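Hi Prof. W.,

I finally got the Phage holin family protein prediction working! I wasn't sure whether to trim anything, so I left the full sequence exactly as given:
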Amino acid sequence: MTFLVRLVINAFAIWLAAAWVSGIDISSSGNGTGWDIVVLLGIALVFTVVNIFVKPLVKLLSLPLLILTLGLFTLVINALMLLLTAWLSSQTDYGLTVDGFWTALWGGLIISIVNFVLGILLPDGD
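And this is what came out:
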């Protein structure tokens, strides 16, 4: 159940980042709102899996930079995870496109803030 809640929160956060940041776009075939939601949930699934498996390894390997920057390097890691998600999802006709690193940094910041706020409002039971 926690995975599904995290998936929906990530989908909302990615949609919000795509709406607010001009270099982030969600590609879909335009078959209607239902199909757009399915594409967004697919992108959120890729993003959630990347955050579950890749992000902890990257954080472990960049631990000295995280300590040196007092955690601000996490923004760079979030941007890299968003770029990785865009690359993985661009292997299909539907997916996420991010124009560059700075766009990914702003998008990662928005996604982090939305995840933080919705994580507080919707506790996972731990």
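The radius of gyration is 14 Å. Does that look reasonable to you?

Thanks,
D.
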